[in-house]
Write a structure and sequence with these properties.
2 domains; 11 helices; about 40% helix; seven-stranded mixed β-sheet; alpha/beta
């Protein structure tokens, strides 16, 4: 009996205790954040728990009680630890942060999934389709399976060579373009030597991407000997921002190629600008805050504009930036723009290619199943891949980390080398 009540009791204690503790120690804003997270995650978990106990063999019931109680305890401990945020040891990450955040995400997914099934179950109940209703009970396992698979998705990145053609064709409306992706082991020659770019987007140094993992990923990317390394912002989480010097250590492999490294701020970087500035400066990486840089590369000079992140006024901001630094003759012209939402406001013909991140590839979608759909597919935000508007081109990187919703669901991170190839084409009309 006590084991049956362990999870509900922990859930109630967490719902009340975490916001109160956070308010006392860190203030109102984080208390509200914790309350909102729990309010989203707990209803689904509390509803799913008894359904699974009734569905599965009775011999598994104690394990279910223990599993839900552990997940709740881990989530509570993780949220409490965020009150004094800092990067934690490996044991804490694997025993507390990762299971706790996975529990929160699975609870949120469970609530949405079970809510979506309610009309179907109601119809079966009214129609007397008891056999169908009994079969639908097994769908209650779906959120657990999706949550488990998403942990694996969140811990890995896909290594790719992405070929981006710059054909100067005109597309009057904003449109997605196909892009060639292949394994680094599959070498395919190009008519001319491409510009090889490594883009590091949204690393979000934190529990899912500690210092050693980000260093290792950077080292693997540098092994491809890129011509440029372009960092498009959102370097930290609350834990990363709360650990002075951690980002500098994570970016240390870039110090040896600092002359070809350029960075811009993302929205989260404005929460800890001094930490980000220090990490970039100590490794010799140039930060572009509404500024330009000229890089000499094997394909010739490249003009790089770096746009600071702004919450509004994208059109005025980008028009002013492009006017302040006009195109240079015989230079490829790149724009680093953290949030791709502003891409449609870049004046037509002002740049050859915009590189963005921010959306984490959509974060929830079906890319792992070979389908291009994500939850952002029908929104204003370009989610991932190559886009066109006029003669301008945009590449949105899926990023390597994430912030906010604590799992990647069907959208793995990206560790790619971009091959930018200049071609010619007629107008697309």
């Amino acid at each position: 009996m006590l084991l049956d009540l362990a999870f509900p009791a922990l859930a109630l204690g967490t719902l009340v205790g975490v916001p109160l503790y956070a308010w006392h120690v860190r203030g109102r804003a984080y208390a509200i954040f914790g309350l909102v997270v729990l309010a989203i995650a707990l209803p689904g978990a509390l509803f799913l728990h008894p359904r699974l106990v009734a569905l599965l063999p009775s011999s598994l019931a104690p394990w279910l009680h223990v599993g839900f109680a552990y997940g709740m305890a881990a989530a509570c401990t993780h949220l409490v630890a965020l009150v004094r945020a800092r990067l934690r040891p490996r044991a804490f990450r694997w025993l507390v942060s990762i299971p706790g955040m996975a529990f929160i995400a699975t609870g949120a997914l469970s609530g949405l999934f079970l809510l979506a099934l309610m009309p179907v179950r109601a119809l079966c109940l009214v129609a007397g389709w008891t056999n169908v209703l009994a079969a639908l009970r097994w769908l209650d396992l779906v959120p657990l399976v999706v949550g488990g698979l998403s942990v694996l998705t969140s811990l890995r990145t896909v290594e790719e060579i992405v070929r981006i053609p710059l054909d100067r064709a005109t597309h009057p409306a904003f449109v997605r373009l196909p892009v060639e992706r292949r394994s680094p082991r599959r070498v395919r020659p190009t008519p001319s030597r491409p510009l090889r770019v490594v883009q590091i987007a949204d690393p979000h140094l934190g529990p899912w991407q500690p210092v050693h993992r980000l260093r290792r990923r950077i080292e693997r990317l540098l092994a491809h000997e890129p011509d440029l390394v372009l960092l498009t912002g959102d370097f930290l989480t609350m834990e990363g921002a709360g650990t002075p010097g951690a980002l500098a250590r994570a970016l240390a492999p870039l110090a040896g190629v600092a002359d070809r490294c350029f960075a811009v701020f993302g929205n989260h970087d404005h929460e800890a600008p001094h930490e980000v500035r220090h990490a970039l400066a100590v490794n010799g990486i140039r930060l572009l805050v509404d500024d330009e840089a000229i890089a000499q590369t094997p394909i010739g000079p490249v003009q790089i504009l770096g746009a600071d992140w702004v919450p509004r006024g994208h059109r005025e901001h980008l028009e002013a930036l492009c006017a302040r630094f006009p195109p240079r003759s015989d230079h490829l012209r790149l724009l680093l723009l953290h949030d791709p939402l502003g891409f449609v406001h870049v004046p037509d013909g002002a740049v050859d290619l915009v590189l963005s991140g921010h959306t984490h590839g959509g974060q929830l979608g079906l890319l792992s199943m070979g389908l291009g759909w994500t939850v952002l597919a029908r929104t204003r935000w370009p989610d991932h891949g190559l886009f066109a508007h006029g003669t301008n081109r945009l590449y949105v990187h899926r990023g390597t980390g994430f912030y906010g919703f604590p799992l990647r669901v069907g959208v793995p991170g990206e560790a790619s080398v971009l091959e930018i190839v200049a071609t010619t084409a007629a107008s697309a009309g």
